[in-house]
Amino acid sequence: MIRKFNPLMLVCTLFLAIAASAQNLPSAKPETVGLSAERLERISTAVQKSIDDKRLAGAVTLVVRHGRIAWFKAQGMQDREAAKPMQPDTIFRICSMSKPITSVAVMMLYEEGRFRLEDPISKYLPEFKNPSILVKPAGGASYTIPASHEITIRDLLRHTSGITYNWNLDLGPTYKEANVAHGMLPYDGTIGDSVERLAKLPLLFNPGEHWEYGLSVDVLGRLVEVVSGKTFDEFLRTRIFEPLGMKDTSFYPPDNKLDRLATAYTYYPDKGLNRFPDTPITEGPFTYSADYPYKGAKKLFSGGAGLTSTAMDYARFCQMMLDGGKLGDVRLLSRKSVELMTHDQLGKIAPDNAFGLGFGIDGVKTPPAEIGTPGEFNWGGFFYTAFSVDPKEQMIVVFMGQLHPAGDLSLDHQIHDLAYQAIID
Questions:
Q1: What are the pLDDT digits (tens) for 49-76?
Q2: Which residue in 49, 121, 234, 250 has the most C-beta neighbors within 10 A?
Q3: How far is CA 207 from the centre of its chain?
Q4: How many CB atoms lie within 10 A of CB 43?
Q5: What are the backbone angles phi and psi of residue 386, rounded to the nearest 5°?
């Protein structure tokens, strides 16, 4: 029987083929990309030692060079108590590794001419108009004074806004009392609700004067919503995750993927490695849990901490940055925007610390402390995840674990070093 040609069927077939091929970066034998297979095995040895020593339940490690996967291995347990092995597609709470993704979303809108980096955030989020600064005298009660100027979008991207985190001893209790979300607890509210509450609170310092890691990027998530007219999760899904083939990255994994979410663990020297408790952990003014990806109202889209992802998905995001804003035929950013984001934006504000627009940068103000390359950009996450991107060596290293507190374990940094010692070209 002769079948009629159906152009729609052809288009659908091609789309599915492209989508399927987009899920994984191509693999290569390590030596073909200038890495030693024998030396890369040291990564496996180091991870296994931490597992055998009961410092870590399991991890996924991934090394990409020249756009090809040279090392990709899952070790240990995704759920130790259930004897469930770690898998290459295990989903992890990436916490602050959400920040670079949010920063890319902001820069995509910047490239569309929606705002300038020097614009005050109050131009788009009026609740931030007329900020104040907290003053804590040596004796007597604290008080506030007007800030000398407003927070800019650049301040938010480089963490010079004066906004801090809930663990800060000066403002953390105030954040908690005001019900400001930090992204690592179930929250009955939206990012808009939380940011509006945050805007009413004082800053630690005049914007632009110091570097202080904090909720600035959550404010940026709200900026994306207001400027784009989309909820933040929808913007990320349609503008970043789907185009890049990041099929397992989201704020709240769907029910059919929850069995792939890694169990979180704690390590205390006097207690050893244990499954994260069912109740939240409180450290000073900061309270956090591990159940936020699947419990609660699921309507908080925390740009600074809320995402879950896999090692492969995050490697695809890193490859996009390494390739100057594009992955394959998909372009999210101009090469010039990537250059801006991955160059130090702090200058004299922080003489010993280099930070771009959403990324930490190594070896540009002080010599590299360990093996690596000046100018590589990176960051990590609260539950023991980390990545680095090296434009000179054309290399990406991704480490995914699920542990906090981690004690004195430095495996996340060691994996980076072991990837670099494997370079042989």
A1: 999 999 999 999 999 999 999 999 999 9
A2: 121
A3: 23
A4: 27
A5: -160, 155
d(CA 232, CA 102): 9
Which is nearest to 345 in space by CA: 153, 149, 158, 103?
A: 158
Question: CA 382 to CA 363: how far, in whole Å?
Answer: 23
Which residue shows structure tokens 């919503």?
225
168 CB neighbour count, 10 Å cutoff? 19
Q: At what angle do helices 98-111 and 216-228 cross, to 10 degrees?
A: 40
Tokens of 226: 């207001």
| Tens-digit pLDDT profile for residues 139-192 | 888 999 999 999 999 999 999 999 999 999 999 999 999 999 999 999 999 999
Do the beta carbons of residue 304 and residue 222 sit within 8 Å? no
Whether residue 310 contacts residue 92, with contact meaning beta carbons closer than 8 Å, is answered with yes
Q: Which residue has the tokens 């699921």?
A: 298
Structure tokens given for 165: 């985190």
Q: Record the tokens describing residue 88, joined without a space.
A: 């290459």
What tokens appear for 241 in the block?
A: 């995750």
Q: Does domain 90-374 have CATH number 2.60.40.420?
A: no
| Ramachandran angles phi, psi of 206, nearest 5° | -60, 135
Q: Which amino acid is at 187?
A: Y
Quick check: pTM over 0.90?
Answer: yes
Paired with 266 in beta bridges are 274
DSSP symbols for 347-383: GGGSTT--B-SS-EE-SSSS--SSSS-TT-EEEEETT
- In angstroms, rounded to a whole number, what is the distance separating the alpha carbons of residues 402 and 260? 13
Task: Name the token pair of 239.
Answer: 């503008």
CA gap 126, 285 in Å, rounded? 28
What are the tokens at 330? Answer: 């998909």
pLDDT digits (tens, 9 = 90+) for 368-391: 889 999 999 999 999 999 999 999
CA–CA separation, 376 and 363 (whole Å): 8
What is the chain's Cα-based Rg?
A: 22
CA 202/CA 144 separation, integer angstroms: 7
DSSP string, 67-121: TEEEEEEEEEEEETTTTEE--TT-BEE-GGGHHHHHHHHHHHHHHTTS--TTSBG
Q: What is the rounded distance in angstroms from the CA atom of residue 302 to the CA atom of residue 101?
A: 11
